[in-house]
Design a protein that fits this description.
The chain has 16 helices and two strands. It has 384 residues and is mostly helical. It starts with a helix and ends in a 9-residue tail after the last helix.
């Protein structure tokens, strides 16, 4: 099946972010296969987008995030010690003498579900934003050029004329240059020239995409920031049940006198925030691919394929000079901070280049029965 522009619009309009993400991932896979038949066997941007979208789905669904958090929190000596101190403050003030139940109430107050939901919302919005724009243009490209038997520069220009001039986030000049490169690369006889043009197109779209995604990436990684205030509010509700105690605490704050209770709650809340960021970052900083996971914080292993080992295209050299501080090498390709645009683009450039000739990237992201379920608008059973 070759996805159409109408298919992209229909999927993008789905209200359920989980089902929408699954259908986006499958649609990217179908576009990737169509582009492979049209342009060549090397990985195109949709090939990489398939697995990036599938990985995003884990954050959108919150797969096992709460359970992983609870496991970490239950084994954290800092959180356990902090709860004991909180219990010593809370027990004399509690309405009920059940210390076990009170401790469980305090433990539940540490629940960071809102932070995980904020990260999920940010990633889901980014997933939809990119698909709305770039997925739609790939569907239009396949429909426009599917039957061509030779390069038609005027037709390529007409296709690109529909794209907005200017740089991202508002302009689509990089997309125009990218689809021009796909058009040229499609009918290149030499494998090296074809590979360089496809890699150039992928990289230009990556630059556009990552510029547009910058707000959502930063928001997802910073989703843990409000946790401290949320946890402190819950604790105070539990520990200070009396109205006069709340007033007393408010006065102490206005006078800028930090009570021991403040220090304990702030320390506990900070421990929770640290665990939440660790878990969210862990999901965003790994990419599950056929054959194994790629950890974005580590240098990529292996080498560039022969066709991309030495770059000859001046246009490609210019783009690489902008995004790759270690040209011709995978050295320092791992990201230190995924929210840092330049750091992120360095990894992406090396990733696109080194994985260009991985046939397994064209593998289906879901089993046939799962595809049937999601095409019917349902969330498939089994591991996603």
């Amino acid at each position: 099946m070759v996805p159409t522009v109408d298919d992209v619009d229909r999927i993008s309009a789905l209200p359920d972010p989980i089902v929408r993400n699954l259908q986006i991932t499958q649609c990217y896979h179908e576009l990737s296969r169509s582009m492979g038949e049209l342009v060549g066997s090397g990985a195109n941007w949709c090939t990489f987008a398939t697995w990036a979208s599938k990985q995003a789905g884990q954050t959108i669904r919150g797969d096992d995030l709460l359970k992983a958090y609870e496991d970490l929190a239950d084994h954290s000596p800092e959180i356990s010690a902090g709860l004991d101190v909180m219990l010593s403050y809370a027990a004399p003030l509690a309405h009920r003498p059940d210390v076990v139940a009170l401790r469980e109430s305090l433990r539940r107050a540490l629940n960071p579900e809102e932070a995980f939901q904020r990260a999920s919302d940010a990633v889901a919005r980014g997933n939809k934003k990119v698909f709305d724009e770039i997925g739609r243009e790939f569907a239009r490209f396949v429909a426009t050029f599917a039957t061509d038997r030779s390069y038609d520069p005027e037709k390529a220009a007409r296709f690109c004329d529909a794209l907005r001039p200017g740089d991202p986030p508002g302009g689509q000049r990089l997309l125009s240059d990218a689809f021009s490169a796909y058009c040229l690369g499609r009918f290149q006889a030499g494998e090296k020239q074809k590979a360089e043009l496809i890699f150039l197109a992928n990289l230009l779209i990556g630059l556009h995409e990552q510029t547009r995604l910058q707000p959502e990436i930063a928001e997802a990684l910073n989703a843990s920031s409000p946790v401290v205030e949320e946890v402190k509010r819950r604790f105070l509700t539990l520990v200070l049940p009396g109205f006069w105690l709340r007033i007393r605490h408010l006065i102490a704050r206005l006078l800028r006198v930090k009570l021991p209770l403040d220090e304990v709650t702030e320390h506990l809340a900070e421990q929770v925030r640290s665990l939440v960021r660790q878990l969210i970052t862990g999901l965003l900083m790994v990419l599950e691919l056929p054959g194994g996971a790629v950890h974005l914080g580590r240098d990529l292993q292996g080498d560039f394929p022969e066709a991309l080992r030495q770059i000859t295209s001046p246009a490609l050299k210019d783009v690489l000079a902008r995004v790759d501080p270690t040209p011709g090498s995978l050295q320092s390709s791992g990201t230190v901070d995924w929210s840092d645009f330049d750091d992120r683009m360095h990894f992406i450039a090396d990733f696109f280049r080194s994985y260009h000739e991985r046939p397994s990237l064209f593998d289906a992201p879901f089993a046939p029965d799962q595809v049937a379920a999601l095409k019917a608008g349902h969330r498939p059973a089994g591991r996603l």
